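dumping this here before i forget
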Amino acid sequence: MGFFTLELARRVGPKGRVVAVDVQPRVIAGLKRRLARAGLLERVDARVATADSLGLSDLSGKIDFALAMAVVHETPGPGWFFGQVAETMKPGGIVLLAEPSGHVKDADFKAEIDAAAVTRAWS
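structure:
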């Protein structure tokens, strides 16, 4: 639903850019409506991911910060997800992985952490 996208768009300011990705076109459409109402649409590049790509290949080495909030488990796998995110990150970029308590099983969360550690191109 892009809960954090609006606030991130406010924080990056008029010259900043936020890239929001979701697997559901209806979520992206709703996000765009909310952004337009808030006057923030021009700060956000909202994209629909496909089954085989997050659709970020044009952003190689351009991302400063990535927030993965309750999303990795919805992708084909943590290695797949973090591999694509790592490609987009600038040197020294930060990736924040957040899963609400009880949202994923402990073993699945550990797999996410392990995959992130293996593909730490952002450190």
